[in-house]
Amino acid sequence: MNMKKGDMTNGFRLLEITEIEELNSNGLMFVHEKTGAQLLYVQNEDDNKVFSIAFRTPPPDSTGVPHIMEHSVLCGSRKFPVREPFVELAKGSLNTFLNAMTYPDKTVYPIASRNDKDFVNLMDVYLDAVFHPNIYDQPETLMQEGWHYELENIDKPLTYKGVVYNEMKGAFSSPEQILFRKIQESLYPDTPYANESGGDPDYIPHLTQEDFLAFHKKYYHPSNSYIYLYGNGEIEEHLKFINDEYLNGFDKAEIDSDINKQAPFAEMRRQEVEYSISPQDNPEGKTYLSLNFAVGSSTDPFQYLAFDILQYLLLDNPAAPLKKALLEAGIGKDVFGSYGSYMLQPSFSIVVKDANEDDEKPFIALVEKTLKELVAKGIDKKLVEASINYREFKLRESDFGGNPKGLIYGLRCLDSWLYGGDPTIHLRFENTIEQVKKALSQPLFEELIEKYLLNNTHSSLVVVKPKPGLSEEKDQEIDEMLQAYKAQLSDKDIQEIISNTQQLLKKQSELDSPENLAKIPMVELSDIETEAEKLPLIEQEVAGVKLLYHPIETNGIAYLNLWFNSSSVPFELIPYASLLTTLLGKMSTKDHHYEDLSNEIDIHTGGIQYNLQALALNGEDGEFLPKLVVSSKALVDKIPKLIELLEEIINGTIFQDARRLKEIVQETRSRMEMIINQAGNQVAMSRLSS
Ligand SMILES: [Zn+2]
Fold it and tell me: What is the rounded average pLDDT of the residues 224-235?
């Protein structure tokens, strides 16, 4: 595309072209003149194209209206009047990403695909969903996705039902979710962040159909939208499509979706909240304590990166001094940090899990003492170097697991864009990382600690305490309230609830008509490449060991995986093989104390991971190959150092340090508990498949 600043194309004016060297991309910033919609196109050679549309949606209360809206717009729209376009679409799509997410202040609808036709199809369904959902003449949508009174017949008890209502009851049973919810509320009480965008089950039933529709009308408008395109697509065609099919039908509107700043506090605030454990459980040692700070601004690229590194340095890596001090003092059994950069005013938290209630004062005192010592004596420069390197490697590698690169970049853009900042500022990290590297010779992190953690009164202490039987108590309270409500209803009102319930059930069991289903665009065989993508593979043998080598472009990074046959491990010892993978790299070796080892790994490599895998053989149920896999990566010129470290860890780890062993086991147990609390369904699935 040959456009220069100021040019118009298909209703869009090009405002700015920014070179993003770090991504081998150009950032083209457009504004849609008729509506004021902003559009960022990150142009490059990546064929894994991404489209997303986001709206700034500060929650007006805790009814969860942003989250319920996210679900509801995907329940049929003008062009695609089926019950679940999303589900139908997925059946005939080659998407590499398809989802929608509600954040504390925005709602994002991203899709990705490597297939051109599929990409446009997905874009069409999503744009139609957000701008023309069928919610206005389908009152069942709020009932189904949000909440409703359910009463099958007059003798049954009245209950609340609804997808988001149930989802959030689940979410609110996790102590970590309660903690992070409270942290946000405690630091920003006079802003939209004090409200729960996902919905607090106590407030969800306050949402009315009128407020629900008004929310869509107000915020789901092009003038309040942030559109993002990424990859090697036909930009002019895409702009034309977005303009002709959607934006052109709207006019500019004044939409107040601004988020106000929280005024700083004069002193730290304290908040306490309870979470439910089962009635038989002992509440001893199950308290969460967290110290939280409002730190700077998300549109400042230096702070954005520096606090992220500081979190790793202080709390998350095996040599982290604050974590170590807390664990050694026996305050909690697990310690972690959290840096929330997806808000106008980011937050920095120090969390201990499985503490005792009376650890509160020692916790505050020890955090303060440790931070003061770090500032006075200076942080170990090797730890500083390791922490910066760890982050820098990740930034340059940009490997986001199963997620398309363009998706994560787009979300990163919103971290500044949504607050009026330069959308690409966090993508252009080269200068910022240079700035952060000054910490190698100057007390840069020490200054951040002093200013934002030690001398910052815009802070809070949040205590999350266990209470046996709390959820049973609450359920009973809600049930009593509902039955009391039912008792004072007239026969006519009761009949209406019964008929609404039946109508909803009937609607839910109706099948989409074949004509409507046919409106969902599908990729056809002719749209698909028939040649499979070939991964180059060379087989060799080195010292009697088979070596598989893939010569492909990896941006100067070497990936080295070692596969050990673990079929000799007896069945009853398999859990210990799993424990072994957790201990490797975290315990001292013959040559390095574990803290020093962790720094060595971060300075010289991009990380080393250990896990167990069982590979199915020949498609047979009972046949499989158990493996212990070591996956590692480093810049190509660091391969010798990487191999040296691998050798040291695999052959030279000392497992006799009982105290360290216990720390790691405690942490592992705590993290597993979190997974079970937050994703019980995944645990069940993995049990089933095993
Ligand atoms: Zn949801």
Answer: 97
